[in-house]
Each structure stands twice: as structure tokens, then as C-alpha cells.
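Note to self: the last two entries modelled the partners one at a time, which told us nothing about the interface. This time every component goes in together.
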Amino acid sequence: MIRLTNVSWRRERKASTPVLSNLSFEVPQGGFRWLLGPSGAGKTSLLSLLHVESLPSDGTLCLLDKDVTAHTHRSVLVRLRQRIGMVHQDFRLMPDLSVADNVALPMRLQHRPEDEITDEVQSILKWVGLGDRLGVRASRLSGGEQQRTAIARAIVHRPGLILADEPTNALEEPQAHKLLDMFSELSSMGTTVIVATHNEALVRRLSRPALVLERGRLVQDGA
Amino acid sequence: MALPFSGRKDGLSLSEALPDRSLFILVAMMSFLAALTLTGATGARTLSTRWAGGAAQLLTIQVSEPDQPLAATSKADKTAQPTRADAVLADLATLPTGTQVHRLTQEELARLLTPWLGDAGKTALPLPAVIEVRLAEGQEAPANLEQTLDAHVPGTVVEHNAEWSTRLRALAQSLLACAALALATVGGIATMITALATKAGLSTRRDIIEILHGLGATDSYIAGRFAWRTGGLALGGGLLGTLLAMAPLLLLFRMAAPFAASTLQAASTTMPDWRTLPDLLPGDMLVGLAALPFVAAFIGWVTTQFMVRVWLRRLP
Ligand SMILES: Nc1ncnc2c1ncn2[C@@H]1O[C@H](COP(=O)(O)OP(=O)(O)O)[C@@H](O)[C@H]1O
Ligand SMILES: [Mg+2]
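The predicted structure of the combined assembly is written out below.
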């Protein structure tokens, strides 16, 4: 479950205009939300707050039953991040690592047994259609392959919250639909999912509540 | 089916991120310096304890014309009188118990003088009697010993070595202080170099670290990855530097060996054999040298841990 109360965020402490101002909304555990709005509205910024890459400048933010704004200890934030899967707009893969090693990272950082990692990584990569690309270095992948690797890395460790920033940008339509079906299935199984996108056709395909941002403000909460 | 995993890799690729070679070489050079400093300090301490410590308890008494009767006033008394040397020995017998009094034999005297006079047995010089008095630990010679002896046996000279030993000890102590200062400086430089290398590594791996952090890597994981790398490099550099220092060090101790010898007998003019050298190096110095690479590794490890953890504070 996610709860924001009057959350504002400035990129710099002294910056005059906040990137996000006065956001308040709630998403229950297992909820699915579209995150919409024009380019520059603050979608990526909001997702990075939800991924605890930065902390709100004002307001309170609760994620998976933890208040991250209450001077929470670093180790708590680390464990929180381990329970979140994030697909970045720019993928953020390790260029020197193979596809399999990239996808294995979240599980390795949680010290899961290596044979379990092998099984999970193999099946998830087969599912995203990269079953024959396991040993390829991430820096040699096409845009679509990178995006699919990033998606696999975000879900391989079964996180409680999935954040996806324009996850279908580099995908063909059938792949995009397949991904959407999976997100919807994960959410019905109890995973909270937030997907930022521009793709209106996609939004029409899966009718779910939308959070709409405009210049850092929440103009619509479809819940 | 085995996955094409590249092992336990996390993408940090620290062997490419850290300025390895320069860190390794710099640590090796500093360990070399530290090993030499350590040797100098140990040498100074050894010499000072052997000379100064021994000398403080040692009196040397010279009696000129030792075989003349004590007071040759009348020719008739000549045989009844003890010799001057015997008279002094008798006086010394009144010193506190535990005192060792030894008059050097002709052979000992000759051996002592050989380096200076050649075959002393054949010299025409009238040799004095030399009496070594070794006081028990903590004992002091009576302050008026020289006056007493000189009054009784005129021309007796007492050489008290305590002043000598105080000066030697002061010298040794300032040498030790210099050595400690030098070691602290070397340690400080090592810390700074490690810090700079870590900073360089952090800035080239900034993006990767942020990704790892986002995937849920703990501070101790990231700091540990950097710290084991620099610690390992410092250990290797420290080993190389210490080993390289062994050559000049052995040479130094080979030259110092005759002076460090504690007994008159061992102070031969010929140098000892190379094979006896391990016996000549003091045990605590060997321990210090063996510890050097580990101290270097520890400095590298701690500095890197600190640097990386401070750096990571910029991320929530
Ligand atoms: N790295 C950056 N440095 C400074 N300003 C940025 C940076 N990235 C984005 N911005 C600004 O922050 C605001 C929000 O951007 P962003 O969250 O990326 O929006 P969106 O994802 O909806 O396109 C925009 O005004 C954008 O210009
Ligand atoms: Mg964006």
C-alpha cells in the first residue's frame, strides 16, 4: 500500500519551484494505477520518490507499511528497496554484465541460493523472449532487448511493488500487450503496480484508475 | 544446464575502476620506507639497550704499575706489602654482595688491545691492570669510590660509564622518536593515497553504484567491495615493499652485528657469516616487518570503508 500526504519535492534544497507539489493519494496493496501526464509533468520524479531514490522535501510518504519520511534508518530503506521492482525509462543495466547476471542482481543482493537464482532467471528471461540471449553483454543489446532485460530484472525477485517508467517505449505491440497482461495478473495476485506511460492505446486496452500529473500537481486521481 | 553467468559479478568491475597499479606501487614504496625506518628504530634500540643498559652497571678500574708493592717506603717491607692491584681488589671486595669483580688476564687484555696495538703481548708499554666491576642490577657504586681508591692506591682511575649511558640513551630515544614520527607520516600518506584512489574509483563508478543502491545493495556491501579491493592491493604492495627492504636491511645488520654483540669475546674483528644472520635480526623486528603488509592492508581497508560510506550518504 502506498500513501502520500502533501508530498512536495525539490531537486535542490534551495530550488524555488518544486518538481512535485502537494501530492496526496493512496494506492491499496494489489492496486494498479496508470501514471499519466505530458512530458515534464513529473512522472519520472514521482516514481523515483516511490523507489526511495530520493526523499520528499515535505509531507509524508508511506510505502509497504513503512513511513520513509520519519527519519527511517538506512537499513530499513535498503530492505524496502529490495521489495520494489523498478523499470527505469533509461533501463540502467550494468553494461559489462551479461543479460543473465543483470537479471540475477536483485536476488544476489538478497543472498538467495544460487540454484534458485538460476531457475528464476532462466524462466523469466524465457518469458520475456530472451531465452537465447542469456550470455550476451548488456551493452550489446538492442533497445527492445534492453527494455525486456530491465523488465525481467524488476520482477524476478517477486517484489511487492512494481514501478514502470514508460516500459513499452522500445517494445513491439504484441510484446507490449503481453507485458500489460502480466502486470495486470501480478496486480490481481497482490502486487501493487504503477505504470507511467504516454501510450494512449495501451491505456485504452486496460482500463484502470489513472493518476494524472500536470506541472508537478495531481490533477486527477481516478480511484 | 549451466547458465552463462560470469560468476559472482555485480558490475562494479573494480579492477578497471580503481587506479590499481599506482596504488600498488605507492604502497610498495611506502612499505619499503616503513621497513627501513622500523629497522633503524630497532637497531637504535638494540644498540642502546646493549650498550647503555650494560654500561650503567659497569665500572672499569685501571691500576697503573699493578705489580709494584703498595707503598715502597722501605726496601725491607717490599715482600710483605701486597701489590697495588691486589690492594685495589681487596678494597673492591667490600662492595655490596652480588658485585662481580674480575681482573682481566693477560690474554684478555691482549685480545682487547690487539686491534689497536697489534700483538700486545710483545709490547714494551707498561700495561695497567684492568679490573671490570659489574654491579648487581639496581646497585650503584659508592660516590666516593674513586677518591677512596686513589687515596689508598694513588694513580687508580675509575671509569664510570653511567654518563656515557645516559647520553647514549638520550640519543637512542630521539632516534626512536624520529622513527615513530616517520612511521606516522608514512601511515598518513598511505591513508591519503588510498582515499584519493577510492575517490577516483567512486567517481568513475558513480552510475553503477547508484544502480546497485537502487537494486537494494547495502552500504556495507558496496563499501566492502571497494575496501577488499584496496585492502588486497595494499597487502600486495606492502608485501613487495617489505621484501625489497630485506636486502638493504640484512646488509645493515650484518655491519651492525659486531657492535651489537654483548660480550667482549664475541666482539671479534671479523664479520659473522651470512648464515648466522637470522639469529642477528631481533625477534620483535621480524614481527614488526611481518606485520607491515597487514598494517598497510588494514589502513587501505579502513580508509576505503570510511570514504565509501561517507560518499553513500548522499543517497537516501
Ligand atoms: N536531471 C534533471 N535536472 C534538472 N531538471 C530535470 C532533470 N530531469 C527532469 N528535470 C525537470 O523536472 C521536471 C519533471 O521531470 P520528469 O519527472 O522527468 O517528468 P516526466 O517523467 O513526466 O517527463 C521537468 O520540468 C524536467 O524538466
Ligand atoms: Mg519521464
